[in-house]
Amino acid sequence: MRYFSVYEGTQLVGQVYLHDIDWQSGEALIGYDLFEPRFRGRGIGTHALTLLQQYAAASTSLTSLIIITVEDNHASRRIAEKCGFVPTGAARENLRWIVWRWDVRRPLALRHRDLENDAL
Ligand SMILES: CC(C)(COP(=O)(O)OP(=O)(O)OC[C@H]1O[C@@H](n2cnc3c(N)ncnc32)[C@H](O)[C@@H]1OP(=O)(O)O)[C@@H](O)C(=O)NCCC(=O)NCCS
Q1: Ligand 1 in contact with 78 (CB < 6 A)?
Q2: What totals of helices (H) and strands (E) does the chain contain, helices first?
Q3: Is 10 exposed, middle or buried (0-12, 13-18, 19+ CB in 10 A)?
Q4: Out of 18, 32, 84, 85, which could bridge 100 as a Cys pair, Cβ 3.0 to 4.6 Å?
Q5: Closest-lying ligand 1 atom to the alpha carbon of residue 73
Q6: pLDDT digits (tens, 9 = 90+) for 52-94
């Protein structure tokens, strides 16, 4: 688990995290929520998810991030879509859940460093 608290200013408003991390396959699931309705619908979720994607790309070897949303959670589906996740079908556990995937895009500088390491 890689867990991050989400703050607006000094106020704790939510959480975003990687869980069920499989370092062998390079896949991890994402969870997010803002604790109170008054914090929602103001772009905080999109911002937090973007930062988590940047963290995964810059600081982990993960290759694929996964979000599972329920069919009628429109805000959750929308932020997945806005952050570049692609719906890949229904979850095995429940056909009403949607599985979204994002292939981790590494920053260019990191890719160059990877290449140097490969050459050593
Ligand atoms: C899901 C959640 C983290 C999203 O964070 P957020 O800060 O509310 O999301 P944002 O404000 O960044 O973006 C929400 C988007 O969904 C859209 N949206 C919200 N409610 C919607 C609805 N009922 N129908 C359609 N679109 C909706 C908004 O219009 C916005 O899209 P836009 O920027 O294109 O207008 C937050 O709403 C939350 O904590 N919800 C309760 C817990 C939860 O559902 N967690 C996820 C479980 S998978």
Answers
A1: yes
A2: 3, 6
A3: exposed
A4: 85
A5: 44
A6: 999 999 999 999 999 999 999 999 999 999 999 999 999 998 9
